[in-house]
Amino acid sequence: MLRIAVLVSGGGTNLQAIIDGVEQGKITNTEICCVISNNPGAYALKRAEKHKIEGVCISPADYRTREEFHDALLNKLLDLQVDLIVLAGCLVVIPPSIVRAFPGKIINVHPALIPSFCGTGYYGLKVHEAVLKRGVKVTGATVHFVDEGTDTGPIILQKAVEVEDDDTPEILQKRVMEQAEWVIMPRAIDLIANDRLVIADGVVKQKK
């Protein structure tokens, strides 16, 4: 059984897709053991409570330094003995100390087709604003392993979404979530839970 912790900062729509995936049997061999938010007001914590999942707030505001915050987050993850950390709308930059403690055991969903519109400064609505400003016709979402870079880890899954002429950043964000993020994040977790992935030379492939 794959024990996962889901890290969130806001409403938790990707978290809900994961919860639904587990409850509906689309994500197998998986237990959500904890939801951790850096934001005490995050609705994601309410979602966790509703589904009887442990919810914890670990906020930088409660610590004197960023290092103390990172240590508290790391210690919680170690105490949980998680097999996989899922970043689902988490706006906290994961420090190298946590990446090194969980090598190949952290995944993130990014609302664009990496390597486009990714890296420092590209998060949330800013990604979709940049997509529309550039005028691309296809965007999407990417699930990838997390390394010490920003959106540079091996890509697990991607799904394309068409950009429409009358899109606003908000409308496009909603379509990318519904058509891509909520589809490929549960799928990626299920693949990991069932040992269906292998990484070779920085490239993720599915086992036959």
How is this structure best summarized?
With 208 residues, the protein is of the alpha/beta class. 36% of the residues lie in helices and 25% in strands.
Please outline the major beta sheet.
Answer: 7 strands, mixed
Total count of helical runs of at least 4 residues: 6
H-E string: EHEHEHEHEHEEHEE
Query: What's the total number of strands?
Result: 9
Radius of gyration: 16 Å
Which regions have little confidence, pLDDT < 50, spanning 5+ residues?
Answer: none
Shape: globular
- How do the strands of the widest beta sheet line up side by side? 3-2-1-4-5-6-7
Q: Which structural class do you get from the secondary structure elements? A: alpha/beta
On the 0 to 100 scale, the average pLDDT is: 96
Task: Give the proportion of residues in helices.
Answer: 25-40%
**How much of the sequence is in beta strands?**
15-25%
The CA-CA distance between the termini, in Å, is 21 Å
Helices and strands, with pairings:
Layout: E1 2-8, H1 13-23, E2 30-37, H2 43-50, E3 55-57, H3 66-80, E4 84-87, H4 96-101, E5 106-110, H5 125-134, E6 138-145, E7 155-162, H6 169-193, E8 197-200, E9 203-206
Helix pairs in contact: 1-6, 5-6
Give a written overview of the molecule.
- It is a single chain.
- The protein has 208 residues and is an alpha/beta fold.
- It contains six helices and nine strands.
- Strands 3-2-1-4-5-6-7 form a seven-stranded mixed sheet, covered by helices on one side.
- Strand 4, helix 4 (96-101) and strand 5 form a beta-alpha-beta unit.
- The longest helix is centred in the last third of the chain and has 25 residues, at 169-193.
